[in-house]
Amino acid sequence: METKAVQAAADLDSARCRGNWAAIPDLAKRYKKYHPDESVLDTVACLEAELVEYLQRTRNGNNRQSFSGTDAGHQQDTPDNIYTPSPIQPEKLQTFIQRLQDITSNRNQELETPDDRQAQFAKIILSRVYYETGQYDKSLEALQNLALNINDATSGYGLVLLVQARTIKGICYEKQSNISAATDAFGAAWDIVEQHLDQKSEMLACWIEQSLYYGTLLRLRTGAPPQKTLRMMRAYTRLVGSHWPSQQWRLNKQWVIFRSYASYLTKLSPQAAVAELCQITETMRVLFRAIQSTCTKKQISARAIELADITVTAHDTIGWGDPVYIRQFLHFLYQAKEHTFNSPSITCYLFFTLVRVGQFDEARYAFNSYMMLCGASDFAKLLETDNVDAREISACATVICKRMSVLQDTWAEIRDKTIQVLLAGVTLHGNHYADGKTAAIMAELAVEIVEQLDIGKATQATCYHSCGIAHGILASQCDSPDTRSDYHKRSIDCLKRAADYQDSWQSWYELALQQAVVRDLHNAASSITRSIQLKKDHLPSWHLLALIYSCNQHQDKTTEALQLLETGVEQSKVLSILGDIPSEMPVESWTGEKTSSEYFHHAESYLELSMSQIQLLEKLEGPEAVLGLFPELFTLHSKLSADLGLQDASLSQNGSRKPSTTSTSTEESTVAATIRKPSYDRPRANSAASSPVPPRRMRSSSSDDARSDRKPATTASMSELHPSRGLNREGSKSLRKKSIHLIDVGFARRIGSNNSQGSSRKNSSSTLLDRSNTTSTTTTSSLRRSSSVTTESSMLSLFAPSPSSAQVKTSLFRSTNIFINQQRERWYQLLIKLWLLSTTTFIHAGRIEEATKAVMEAEEQLLLGQLNDANVWHQLGVVCIKKADETKVEELRETGLDAFKKALAINPDHVNTLVDMARCFIDMEEWELAESHLDRATQGYGWDHAEAWYLIGVCHRQRQDMQRAKECLLYALELSETTPLQPFTLLPRFVN
């Protein structure tokens, strides 16, 4: 009997906790049967069930409407205006009031009997009746002197009633404008629930949701301390995302809380809140999908735009966090695009997010869509023009401005977004696609818009800054002398105006770079000095100043140029930066975050600077003195490849680096320090024997095993630096079967042979050439077999071969991410440049055999990277010509010309090839051919090539055109005085 009594009590309590009001009458009768001495609990339970059912009918709800309905009234809730259902007329609930008063009156406060204890809980039901009728004073009065047994009020439905009492008290205080007391009541409700999180039920979830909802909004209304406000927000979020009954958490209320939560975190702007903000916005995206079934299409569209606005505004302030999260947001934007009809905001956010994760091709489509939505229907026509037409751009800007002015409520926001999109488009096309014309048109359009709308100086400065960079790129890609001059002038004018409007180091750097390109070195030095004063840790700025000092007109400042490079490395702390590369970063950012492109630029800038150091040292001490430095440079490239995640497909699809076991050690610093050591601190070396690293013996065998055994002149072997060092080369060979050979076998044999004359050389070439007709592929190692080693201490044996072998896997991996592919190709090109630089140094040192092998290594990188580079063919031609001069074999000269022709087949405007080929024609007294090549060079991209102008002057002198010859020779002399060791154009643009 006792067991049944306990079970009856448990069943009744459970039904009340679940809100199963239809079952209450039967369960109350059963309870009364086993508890005949009690009269309060069963009566109060039945009264409460009747009350709830009446409220549901009155408010047109279903079985759970009053607790878990669509709560449409809360859609527009704000901290200052919280929706409350209209009160019920008191007379309609008078019967409930009277019956509850009869139960609660004349009861013993000592709680001696079960009825006494249940009568106290009945006061809470009475308070609720007063609350539902709008009698807030009486509701609070009913809760006064409430005496509850602690054991009864901390579990089951007793806990529900306690939380209900505190929630009702808080709402009543809010209605009476006693906000302080209201927030205390809501806080007390959460306090008791937090202590008993193991107690879970539908009705408890209903009332604590009410309490946390009101408590959060009221704390926002009063500007409560962040700790207290965030406590309520986090509690709400915690319960929504936990195992609590989800149907009690109303969808619109969740939206209001999460929206307020995100905005609040944005205002606080702590960097530690990034993860929390990501969680909130991700939860809102889940909520967005859930809420669609209760909304109209128009409401869904509004919600999608609102969520996108919230997310972007918040993350632009705090930061975007993990790229994985950014890709999730990108997925949401594609969904939102389906629910919104041509929303400029969604398209704008889509463009920026695509750029942020490195999906540049898709970003260009999003850009074009946004421009169409802005009314720039003629924008596509602008891109089809041959030149940048100012009148058409002005007309297009006028159309956009008129379109924006129609949107009176949001025109300022649309205006700002349009300018931001245009400027980001300039960076996208100018920096990542090297499309100067498109970038210049976009920049001019942005300038025209800000001028027509008379926007502030800061925005104008940014637009002119981008316009100057874009025209500089366009000028470098222009082959028309007159047009190119106009673009250079426009670039400098825009950058000067940007610097006048805003004294930023970026504008001064870009201005200095552009002035250096047009050989205005005095003003360039002044501008870059100002840039360095504003930002001393920007490595390319120091590099630019050093290149200015490397020109012949500063012949006595070569040592100072070296010191500048050393200072730049120290000031920029580039070694520390490259020694601690995060594993997950966005590709681009407009909110000051670290990005993948930033670290790639650091690494590239450091490698380029190291190459300039070697060239300056060679200028001071001669080529033999610097040959020993190349191993360290190759080792540096290899380690940076690993640290940047450029080996074994270790880049994630968003362009960030996956975690790598390879870390930058003190060895790298030692290597770098060795490279950076100034020449004036080191004794002059006149031979390989006196170089910092003794040469190693190179095996006479040219097999792959021989190459694998070669080590750089460092304490660590290349196999230690690259786990993939021991890969078999089948992957490389299969790749070659699919690739067009850049160097044919017979050609390679001719330039590699040691025998300058005699039938043995001819027979060897002929045999090998015949063999090439029956063999589909020939590896670079087989090409080397034709070039035997003349000395056992070949300097080439010091060079690190590991980048070529360590990156075999990388060459086979092609990503769908444009940024990843761009960086891989760029990194291959840097390695090729290292080999070509070593080739040049070997040539200067008179080591033609080593130069031959070095250029073969460069060719191997072309195959591995699946690239085409005219520089390799040009350098191959130079080696052939040098060897022809040395051996007096005319066949080698013809081979060199063949190499030049192949270089021009890849790039018809390759300036160095045109000039060197013209020199060969001059030696052969083919003056017309020489002049045609030189005209093509000087009128095109070689307008600033000193030797090209000198040689064309020689051609004019041969034709007895002395006036023209004099002009060309004087111009060549002027250019030679302002030509740096490395071209200024290798320095980066779009710095930030």
TrEMBL record:
Pfam family membership, one: TPR_8
Comp. bias (Low complexity): 660-670, 753-788
Keyword Transport carried by entry: no
Basic and acidic residues bias (residue ranges): 702-712
Record PROSITE patterns: TPR (PS50005)
TPR repeats: 946-979
Keyword field: TPR repeat
Region annotated Disordered, chain positions: 61-88, 650-735, 751-788
Compositionally biased region (Polar residues): 61-86, 650-659
Domain of life: Eukaryota
Biological role: Involved in endocytosis.
Family listed: Belongs to the YPP1 family.
The protein, known as: Uncharacterized protein
